[in-house]
Specification:
Blueprint (H helix, E strand, L loop, with lengths): L5 E4 L7 E8 L8 E4 L3 E4 L3 E2 L15 E8 L5 H6 L4 H14 L7 H8 L3 H14 L4 H13 L4 H12 L4 H9 L5 H13 L4 H13 L3 H11 L6 H14 L8 H4 L3 H9 L10 H6 L4 H8 L5 H10 L6 H9 L8 H14 L3 H9 L6 H12 L4 H8 L4 H15 L5 H10 L10
Parallel strand pairs: 5-6
Antiparallel strand pairs: 1-4, 2-3, 2-6
Helix pairs in contact: 2-3, 2-4, 4-5, 5-6, 6-7, 7-8, 8-9, 9-10, 10-11, 11-13, 15-16, 16-17, 16-18, 18-19, 18-22, 20-21, 20-22, 22-23
Length: about 425
């Protein structure tokens, strides 16, 4: 029966609710309403947490409509949180997923990362999870990180004992290797583990990083393709695999099947396509057409987007002097991101303004690898050969290699080696770099 009042219980406040209209005939739908993620709510919607009928009987030819309340728990975490404006509800959602999502859940790692903003609470959640699921890899990874943040080693000692007691467990072997000091020995151990357990997604994930950091794109493509099939590892493997596939010549159209495994990759590809036409993100389309003034004008409609687009435009090939000046005049703390930090450091180097400030911003983007990118750029500026500069850069992740090549392209201009210019365009998506011709 339609029109009755319903009380709805949202378990642990874990899922946002949306009210929308099912329309029939020529009826006009009501505007969708985000209902937040309250535990208990009352609604007079016609259908609550059930599918509306495919057709209805009406007394006129104007059609009709029925109101529907649906849960949207299938969305990626960032999209779910975007539907909830109440901060307390948002935090409750994050903690509920971190506590109760199954170990094989596609988005568990993302929810745990979000919950890490509150380490004390997360520590208790991880202890609860491990009581229920002692070999929950995502939780055990976080246990290692929490210990590391406190300067302790108890988690690794315990997990290494677990691995010694179950030598046939790929998950525990992977976790034990994660406890090793970073470097050549750890890299080789990950590769050996992947050879022993070729279908294990966690070893595929780790060995893919090793191979991609070495620039072995074909081998990285092979193992990351396996990691992209694992529910726990697909979300954050897919964007890295896409970078590798682009280096191997894949078009963005050919990456669409892979995007189905990752909300983040879906977003990166959408922002590089005509899907954003009509929104403020059309600014990126103008940017990479070389229409810099139009890109900046469109981005002005969005206070968060504007500094990012202005900085990328200012560092782009052939940018006009007025945009370069505007980008350099923008306060360094305004809307900074890792992408714009590298582009702005490159522009500051080329223009001789505020180089030291932006060098520090760039160094802060990655505690493990940014220093090598900076050393690479310094070698390029000292007229090192391609081979010498690459040796200084060494083994870094695909995106950081893309940042290195981007800075070289901005600083060196048309004298930049074509391989670096091409690498920057393939390893970084359009929202991550300036326009390079």
């Amino acid at each position: 029966m339609t029109g009755r009042s319903h009380f709805t219980y949202n378990v642990a406040g874990a899922t946002p609710m949306v009210q929308w209209s099912a329309v029939y005939g020529g009826a006009e739908p009501d505007e969708d309403r985000n209902l937040g993620a309250e535990r208990w709510s009352a609604t007079s919607a016609d259908y609550v947490l059930e599918e509306p009928p495919s057709s209805i009987q009406t007394k006129s030819n104007d059609g009709g409509k029925r109101s529907v309340v649906s849960a949207v728990g299938e969305l990626a975490p960032h999209r779910q949180l975007g539907l909830v404006t109440d901060e307390a509800q948002r935090q409750a959602m994050i903690l509920a997923h971190a506590r109760w999502d199954a170990p094989e859940s596609r988005h568990l790692t993302t929810w745990l990362a979000m919950a890490s903003q509150n380490p004390a609470t997360l520590q208790g959640i991880i202890a609860e999870r491990l009581t229920r699921h002692p070999e929950d890899v995502a939780a055990l990874r976080v246990e290692q990180q929490l210990d590391k943040g406190q300067g302790q080693n108890a988690a690794c000692e315990r997990q290494q004992k677990m691995a010694a007691g179950k030598p046939a467990s790929p998950a525990l072997a992977y976790l034990s290797i994660r406890c090793m000091p970073e470097g050549q020995a750890q890299d080789e151990a990950f590769l050996a583990g992947q050879q022993r357990w070729p279908q294990d997604p966690w070893f595929a994930l780790a060995s893919g990083y090793v191979l991609a950091s070495r620039g072995d794109w074909s081998a990285a493509n092979e193992v990351w393709s396996k990691a992209a099939m694992g529910p726990q590892t697909a979300e954050f493997t897919a964007p890295e695999l896409a970078r590798v596939k682009r280096m191997l010549g894949a078009s963005d159209q050919e990456l669409q099947p892979l995007a189905a495994e990752s909300a983040h990759l879906t977003s990166l590809l959408a922002l590089d396509s005509t899907e954003v036409m009509g929104s403020q993100y059309e600014a990126y389309i103008h940017l990479h057409r070389g229409e810099y003034q139009g890109a900046v004008a469109m981005a002005e409609l969005d206070a968060e987007l504007f500094p990012q687009v202005l900085r990328l435009a200012g560092a782009s090939d052939g940018a006009p002097e007025d945009l370069i000046k505007k980008a350099l005049d923008l306060p360094a703390e305004e809307g900074i991101s890792p992408d714009s930090a590298w582009s702005m450091w490159a522009l500051a180097l080329r223009q001789g303004r505020n180089e030291a400030v932006w060098r520090e911003k760039a160094l802060a983007t990655d505690a493990e690898e940014a220093a090598r990118v900076v050393a690479f750029v310094d070698a390029v500026r000292a007229n090192a050969s391609v081979q010498q500069a690459e040796a200084v850069l060494g083994n870094v992740r695909p995106a950081n290699r893309g940042y290195a090549y981007t800075v070289a392209a901005v600083v060196r201009g048309q004298s930049c080696p074509q391989a670096w210019r091409d690498g920057a365009k393939k390893l970084l998506f359009g929202t991550e770099r300036p326009h390079l011709m």
